[in-house]
Amino acid sequence: MNPDPPSFFEVYNVHKQQPNHWSKAKWKGRAVQIRVVLRDWAAPRTGKVVPTLAVNLMYPQSTELVGFYPLGFIAEADRSKIAIGETRTMKIWTKGDGEIGIPTTKVWLFDESMTEEQIQDVLMFCRAASSLWEPEDFGLSP
């Protein structure tokens, strides 16, 4: 267990996961269960397969998918702060409203204790990688 998990972090490549269910949703602070896993990822330029930290997601209210399914990969800047096997409840958010038919490529996961105002402050910036901001910047404890 990670004694000091980050308050929020970014997950990318959501649209390339199979089944491609999570990228079609407009997430606005719903509570989800996440599990951090190690998954092989092929580097775009070289094609070299590298084990990379990824997130599996379970949405308890889902009637289609029961259990954990791949969500995406954890942004490189956040990987050192997140432990393999970490499982917790978080709030999931997509930036913007999204358009029908256009899949989400990136989501943000926030600690369930963060308020909507704190989340909006984070999302107001173009990138929400936890390495760019300190928890104190959003009124959270370090």
Structural summary, described in words:
The chain has 142 residues and is mainly β. The chain contains one helix and six strands, in the order E-E-E-E-E-E-H. The longest helix is centred in the last third of the chain and has 9 residues, at 116-124. The chain is globular, with a radius of gyration of 15 Å. The two termini are 18 Å apart. 27% of the residues are buried. Residues 126-131 have low confidence and may be disordered.
Shape: globular
Distance between the termini: 18 Å
β-strand number: 6
The helix-strand sequence is EEEEEEH
How much of the polypeptide forms β-strand, as a percent range?
25-35%
Q: What value does the average pLDDT take?
A: 79
Helix content: under 10%
Give the assembly state of these chains: single chain
Low-confidence stretches: 126-131
Strand order of the largest sheet: 1-4-3-2-5-6
- The secondary-structure class comes to mainly beta
Number of helices: 1
How would a textbook summarize the main sheet?
Answer: 6 strands, antiparallel, barrel
| Rg on CA atoms, Å | 15 Å
Secondary-structure blueprint of this entry?
Layout: E1 8-12, E2 28-42, E3 49-58, E4 69-74, E5 87-93, E6 106-111, H1 116-124
Antiparallel strand pairs: 1-4, 1-6, 2-3, 2-5, 3-4, 5-6
Outline of this structure?
With 142 residues, the chain is mainly β.
Structure characteristics:
single chain; 142 residues; six-stranded antiparallel barrel; 1 helix; 6% helix; 35% strand; globular
